TrEMBL record:
The lineage of its organism: Bacteria, Pseudomonadati, Pseudomonadota, Alphaproteobacteria, Hyphomicrobiales. SMART domains: HTH_LUXR. It comes from Mesorhizobium prunaredense. Pfam families: GerE. One of its GO terms (molecular function) is DNA binding. This is HTH luxR-type domain-containing protein. Residues 140-197 form the HTH luxR-type domain.
Length: 209
């Protein structure tokens, strides 16, 4: 006969499997304690995350270091992360952006009912729809229509030169729009801009905060 704890764990695992984004629960060292169906497929298929001797790693070394720093922060200082978590860019420059969002699990029902040793839930998925994300950032930071169009193009994976050409504007004009976006949002790099977006909009398939 199954006890109630086993039934609850099975129900939580089923709920995680229903998410279309990959979800990995880890301890403070990044050890993989549980992976949902999407995460298992991603780990097996050589995607942006890997299981290396039981430890969650990113395929890109620099991203792996940042991912583990985020997990450690989730374990040590949950208050500083907040409900939105920390975003880590997993994909290389020039490729469609893939992010991990690291959320702390201290005191959560999922941790208590399924993996008591888990300190972080790592959600991995593609960046949100570029037009939705650009529109949300435009409303939050007062971007102009031209700046919003440039931002959406960059979020779609286009370079600044390609963006300028697609809108029939000079590269210097596209760069001016990007500089204005940086100034209004308070960041100085496109990677930081993507992280800002991921703080606002969850990866596809992840429930909102």
């Amino acid at each position: 006969m199954l006890d109630i704890g086993t039934v609850e764990r099975a129900g939580m695992a089923e709920a995680l499997d229903a998410l279309t984004c990959a979800v990995v629960l880890t301890n403070e060292r990044g050890a993989v304690l549980h992976a949902n169906r999407s995460a298992k497929h991603m780990l097996r298929s050589g995607g942006p995350i890997q299981d290396v001797h039981g430890i969650l790693q990113a395929k890109i070394p620099s991203a792996s270091k940042e991912l583990h720093s985020a997990i450690m922060l989730a374990a040590q200082d949950e208050a500083s992360i907040g409900k939105t978590g920390l975003a880590v860019l997993l994909s290389e420059s020039g490729l469609p952006p893939v992010f991990a969002r690291v959320l702390p699990m201290a005191g959560g029902d999922l941790r208590a009912g399924m993996e008591p040793a888990a300190v972080a839930a790592v959600f991995v998925g593609n960046a949100p729809d570029e037009h939705d994300a650009a529109g949300m950032l435009a409303r939050a930071f007062g971007l102009t229509l031209a700046e919003t169009r440039v931002l959406a193009s960059l979020l779609a994976g286009h370079t600044l030169a390609e963006t300028g050409a697609s809108f029939h504007i000079a590269g210097t004009t596209a760069k001016t729009h990007l500089d204005n976006i940086f100034q209004k949002t308070g960041v100085s790099r496109q990677a930081d801009l993507m992280r800002l977006i991921m703080q606002i909009v969850p990866p596809a398939g992840q429930p909102g905060p």
